[in-house]
């Protein structure tokens, strides 16, 4: 039974077993892949410890000192203030309104007069009317650009102002100035970096103009109805709840993306290195020749690294989340436990499962990103350098540009689509999620299942949307791996056309056409140098007008020149020729390692260009160069393939050929191992054995 005949789950488990055997051989690398991220992840604990009150000998016995590691800031309340107190600082102020008619013109003049009287604004004020809101907007944008935002412009759009004042006031205020941001962010659940004691909304001319317009309208309506209205409007900032803060100017949660990013450098380098090594030394193609599918290969590679990554993620989650009992013995004897206590208390309000899901999705997207990255390289050194540049630069630039300084002015104004596109990168999703988590933690509420849909900080982004973007990025990476691994031409194997997924043969397969193959072999060659074709025997391999050229710089070398050959079933055919005649190149074309420059070939009626995977199932190949795993023993190689074939034959072959060499062996014994793997079944072995016995007698 061949590997292709086994089910996909069995192939997956076999390849996963192979991956863990390799990890067993490279135990030092595996150790660093697990330990380094966990050790670096404790850096926030150390930072928080260094920025907190130092312990001394007598304070070890005080349970309150651990709580003092966090500064609990009391709730904040604010005194009422007069909205007219907030007046502009610019020396030039222009009011623009729409629509422009007699009622709105008089109303604007009265409102501006009230504004000047109550704010005591003595500088220049101009009033300009426009026909429509669009015209007003165009004018204001032009003036602001011309003055570089130094002039304050307030636009007012009145609704339902006709021949007389409407029954109720309906209007909009359009505020424009280079001194303030695009929004006051008054609708957010949490403010950035604690309560805003001096925000733009309270101390700009916006409130003063709003009060002027509304008081003017109230007075005019009171005069119409002959009433005397005596009142005074006061404003009061909404109180801010008790919140938790560290001593220093940073949030410890913001450090976590840094330590996770740099902690997994060794991990991601090994992913790319292992995938490219298997591709460059031919072991991946050997597995595909034995019938392995691309899906099982990539799925086993992903699971091999995800299991290790999940172990580290789970331990890191425990380190950050589970509260430990901080007794005096722990405080006096084990400083590391103190660090764990501090950070776990700091993140005690963050739901354990939410944090685990966020980090697990980050790990999945990171592994898939590395697998996709490895497709485009054939040299390990170049791939690792490029990976480090892309990974580190993308993280650092996003952190510095969007999240480190002035995030209110840079990150908040981005469209929701831009924010979600940032989350498609593993580093972008990690930064975005912990950016929001940090403010939940500062408030003391923490990220819980009930608030992952709240727009608490960023007006149009929440934790659930980030999780959805991370899931979508994983699906996008899977699609990209499937597509580019099939069509990328600069790697071993026969690339598929870019439209391969639109063809019927890819999804349903094609039926071998024996009639066409028989027609191919009947050519005009009938000279004495060509052996007469046997009758009643169908060809297993048909090669027709095969060419293969290799280009080195500006030079072109012809390796195979118009080769036509028929190899019949039940016969042994040998390719003879001097070095460089094209023997190995021909075999590599038949097995799908190389793409022919022109011509084609078929195996059991299946074209090697369009049905590469199915055609390989009829081949057993012992390559010229060793494509075995250097760290696996002969016994392990044969047992893996024996399990793949689900046949007792290879187990017996193991006993007969390698009875005394079950561990590392010489180059000659490696060739014997590769020869054994090429004998896929009992029939192949019996036929070759009979021929060799006969030749030995001759």
From TrEMBL:
ABC transporter domain boundaries: 560-660
Q: One GO term of the cellular component aspect?
A: membrane
- Which segments constitute the ABC-2 type transporter transmembrane domain? 30-483
Q: Which SUPFAM superfamilies match?
A: P-loop containing nucleoside triphosphate hydrolases (SSF52540)
Q: What are the alphabetically sorted keywords of the record?
A: ATP-binding, Membrane, Nucleotide-binding, Transmembrane, Transmembrane helix
- Please give the superkingdom of this protein's source: Eukaryota
Q: How does it sit in the membrane?
A: Multi-pass membrane protein
Molecular function per GO: ABC-type transporter activity; ATP binding; ATP hydrolysis activity; lipid transporter activity
- The residue ranges crossing the membrane are 27-49, 255-276, 297-320, 326-346, 353-376, 382-404, 416-440, 463-484
Subcellular location per UniProt equals:
Membrane
InterPro entries reported for this sequence: ABC2_TM, ABC_transporter-like_ATP-bd, ABCA, P-loop_NTPase
**Which named protein is this?**
ATP-binding cassette sub-family A member 3
Question: What species does this protein belong to?
Answer: Araneus ventricosus
Its lineage opens with:
Eukaryota, Metazoa, Ecdysozoa, Arthropoda, Chelicerata
Q: Which gene is the coding source of this polypeptide chain? A: Abca3_14
């Amino acid at each position: 039974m061949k590997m292709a005949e086994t089910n996909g789950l069995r192939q997956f488990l076999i390849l996963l077993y192979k991956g863990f055997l390799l990890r067993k051989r490279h135990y030092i690398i595996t150790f660093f892949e697990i330990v380094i991220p966990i050790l670096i992840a404790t850096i926030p604990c150390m930072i928080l410890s260094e920025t907190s009150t130092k312990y001394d000998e007598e304070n070890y016995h005080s349970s309150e000192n651990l709580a003092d590691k966090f500064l609990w800031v009391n709730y904040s309340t604010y005194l009422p203030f007069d909205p007219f107190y907030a007046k502009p600082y610019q020396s030039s102020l222009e009011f623009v309104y729409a629509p422009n008619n007699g009622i709105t013109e008089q109303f604007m003049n009265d409102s501006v007069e009230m504004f000047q009287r109550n704010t005591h604004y003595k500088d220049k004020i101009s009033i300009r009317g426009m026909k429509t809101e669009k015209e007003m907007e165009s004018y204001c944008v032009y003036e602001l650009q011309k003055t570089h935002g130094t002039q304050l412009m307030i636009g007012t759009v009145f609704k339902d102002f006709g021949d007389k004042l409407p029954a109720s006031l309906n209007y909009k205020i359009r505020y424009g100035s280079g001194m303030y941001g695009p929004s006051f962010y008054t609708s957010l659940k949490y403010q950035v970096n604690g309560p805003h004691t001096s925000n733009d909304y309270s101390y700009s001319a916006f409130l003063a103009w709003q009060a002027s317009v509304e008081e003017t309208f109230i007075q005019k309506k009171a005069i119409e109805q002959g009433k005397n209205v005596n009142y005074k409007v006061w404003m009061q900032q909404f109180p801010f709840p008790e919140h938790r803060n560290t001593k220093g100017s940073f949030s410890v949660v913001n450090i976590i993306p840094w330590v996770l990013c740099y902690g997994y450098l060794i991990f991601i380098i090994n992913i790319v290195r292992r995938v490219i090594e298997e591709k460059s030394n031919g072991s991946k193609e050997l597995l595909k020749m034995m019938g392995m599918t691309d899906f099982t290969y990539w799925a086993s590679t992903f699971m091999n690294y995800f299991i290790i990554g999940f172990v580290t993620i789970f331990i890191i989650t425990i380190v950050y989340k589970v509260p430990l009992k901080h007794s005096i013995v722990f405080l006096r004897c084990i400083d590391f436990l103190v660090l764990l206590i501090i950070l776990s208390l700091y993140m005690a309000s963050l739901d354990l499962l939410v944090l685990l899901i966020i980090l697990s999705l980050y790990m999945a997207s990171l592994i898939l990103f590395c697998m996709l990255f490895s497709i485009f390289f054939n040299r390990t050194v170049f791939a690792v350098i490029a990976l480090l540049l892309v990974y580190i630069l993308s993280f650092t630039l996003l952190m510095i540009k969007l999240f480190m300084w002035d995030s209110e002015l840079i990150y908040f104004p981005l469209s929701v689509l831009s924010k979600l596109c940032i989350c498609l990168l593993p580093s972008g999703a990690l930064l975005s999620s912990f950016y929001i988590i940090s403010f939940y933690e500062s408030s003391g509420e923490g990220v819980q299942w009930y608030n992952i849909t709240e727009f608490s900080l960023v007006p149009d982004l929440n934790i659930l949307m980030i999780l959805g973007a991370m899931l979508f990025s994983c699906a996008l990476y899977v699609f990209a791996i499937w597509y580019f691994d099939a069509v990328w031409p600069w790697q071993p194997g026969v690339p598929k056309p870019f439209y391969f997924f639109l063809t019927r043969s890819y999804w349903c397969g094609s039926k071998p056409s024996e009639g066409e193959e028989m027609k191919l072999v009947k050519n005009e060659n009938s000279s004495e140098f060509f052996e007469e074709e046997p009758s009643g025997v169908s060809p297993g391999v048909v090669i027709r007008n095969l060419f293969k050229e290799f280009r080195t710089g500006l030079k072109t070398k012809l390796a195979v020149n118009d080769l036509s050959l028929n190899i019949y079933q039940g016969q042994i055919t040998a390719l003879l020729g001097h070095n460089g005649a094209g023997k190995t190149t021909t075999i590599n074309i038949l097995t799908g390692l190389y793409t022919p420059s022109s011509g084609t070939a078929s195996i059991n009626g299946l074209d090697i260009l369009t049905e590469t995977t199915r055609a390989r199932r009829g081949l057993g190949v012992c390559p010229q160069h060793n494509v075995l795993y250097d760290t696996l023993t002969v016994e392990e190689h044969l047992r893996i393939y024996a399990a793949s074939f689900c046949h007792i034959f290879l187990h017996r072959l193991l006993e007969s050929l390698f009875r005394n060499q079950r561990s590392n062996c010489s180059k000659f014994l490696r060739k014997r191992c590769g020869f054994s793997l090429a004998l896929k079944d009992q029939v192949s072995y019996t036929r070759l054995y009979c021929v060799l016995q006969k030749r030995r007698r001759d």
